[in-house]
Amino acid sequence: METPHVLAIPYPAQGHVIPLLELAQCLVHHGFKVTFVNTEFNHKRVMNALSDNNNLTNLVNLVSIPDGLEPWEDRNDLIKLTESTSEVMPGKLEELIEKINGSDKNKITCVIADGSLGWALEVAVKMGIRRAAFWPGAAAQWALQLSIPELIADGIIESYAGMPVNNRMIQLSPSMPSMNTEHFPWICFHEENTNNFIFDFLTRNNKAAKFADRLVCNSSYELESAAFALFPNILPIGSLLASNRHGKSSGHFWPEDSTCLDWLDQQPGQSVIYVAFGSFTVFDQIQFQELAMGLELTNRPFLWVVRPDITKAASDAYLTEFKERVATRGRIVGWAPQDKVLGHPSVACFLSHCGWNSTIEGISNGIPFLCWPYFADQFFNQSYICDVWKVGLGFNKDEGGIIRHEEIKDKVEQLLADEALKSRALHLKEVTAKTVEEGGTSSNNLNNFIKWMKE
After folding, report:
1. Which of 88, 61, 55, 93 is closest to 73 using CA atoms?
2. Mean pLDDT score, 139-160
3. Which of 18, 13, 39, 44 is nearest to 281 (CA)?
4. Is the pLDDT score of 129 beyond 90?
5. Backbone torsions φ then ψ of 403, nearest 5 degrees
6. pLDDT by residue (tens digit) across 73-96?
7. Pairing of strands 169-170, 179-180
């Protein structure tokens, strides 16, 4: 019998690559051959960031296709990136599949495409290959996007550009958490052209999602029961984390600085504030310095991830001076092995942008949150953390939209003094751990998904 061969292709952003690559490694463990397709640009970053003792390349066939952009072009420009990938990558993906099927006795038997890559599902339809759409974020956000036609019909958003008719709180179903129409992910870019483009892109994706034989999501019934009740055809198979299989996390775009783990070993238990804002957040200089001052004011040990591109203006001189002032209790790194950090006994709380990967990593380790969302789904994820699960606190901005250092200090103190909140975080850790254990809801769904792909 031939080995089932899955081709997995993520949306070209780190937050999408990591969970799909985790699913790919799970499939290898269950006897699949997996070809994982990144863009050439991201493939190089992933390969450069792999540690010497990571055996990913022995497990998964990592390949790449061009995204249509030149190496120096800005891939944070979502219009340029999405236009280019949608135009260039479908043909390149088709060529790749034909090449594999012509040279490999184990032909591609299933395409698993990111839920934001409708065109990849269309390629699979054209080539007669079964297909699944994988959503790396919260099911509620997918439910929101799939509900766009109903939102238009109900007069909540306009058919053009998806702008809210009135800014208000809505619920997709009576049992789901409220959503702020101001924070819908397609209007968060503060630029009309980008908002319009993203809305059109999501609408096209909704149509393509109908080509998927299966819809799977990196979440669980226990975290989002109401969202899965609204869309029962979406199967939760999460949380997909390297720690669940006692392995190494892969797919990062920056090399991890693991020396911070040695530093954590030297700190008292549950004392460290871990600060990380993912791969996309950018601060202006004022907000960056307010955050630094806030951390300094707490007078507590902290580990802060500061990417080279995290500020709009150069901050090298300020950062050097700041490091000198806080050298005895602060550690700053360019990128951290976050799964290991959040599982470390010295970490007390997680000051986070509330990206879904970070959210489920924090939850899985029983860590309380300080929520600082930047864009898109992160605002709704904050609602889950603060209002539904009640395992975190948000920050208040001043009249100029800045979170000031005094507010940061106050919220840190408030969070770390709240024993009930910390207790809920530990309880949620236990609940979510059971979902991925043998017989758990997500484990059963994953096994059924695997069985379908092997048929």
Report:
1. 88
2. 94
3. 13
4. yes
5. -90, 115
6. 988 888 888 889 999 999 999 999
7. antiparallel
Residue with tokens 């061969």: 5
Q: Considering only 261-270, 282-291, 385-394, 414-423, which range has the smallest mean pLDDT?
A: 282-291
Tokens of 312: 């709009």
Q: The whole model's pTM is what?
A: 0.95
What value does the mean pLDDT take over residues 37-50?
A: 95
State the Cα–Cα distance between residues 267 and 345, nearest whole angstrom. 9
Q: How far is CA 89 from CA 9, 96, 206, in A?
A: 11, 10, 19
Return the structure tokens found at 232. 């029962």
- Residues 6 or more apart in contact with residue 139 via CB below 8 angstroms: 217, 219, 224, 227, 228, 231, 234, 236
Q: What are the tens digits of pLDDT across the range 169-190?
A: 999 999 898 999 988 999 887 7
Rounded to the nearest 10°, the torsion over CA 442, 447, 448, 449 is 90
Does the bond joining 352 to the residue before it have cis omega, within 30 degrees of 0? no
Residue identified by tokens 């990849």 is 120
The single residue listed with the structure tokens 């300020």 is: 318
- % residues pLDDT > 90 (the chain): 78
Cα separation, 331 vs 266, in Å, equals 12
For residue 237, CA distances in Å to 23, 99, 133, 400 come to 9, 31, 12, 41
Cα distances (Å, whole numbers) of residue 428 to 22, 73, 356, 371: 22, 42, 16, 17
Is residue 315 predicted with pLDDT exceeding 70? no
CB 34 within 8 A of CB 106: no
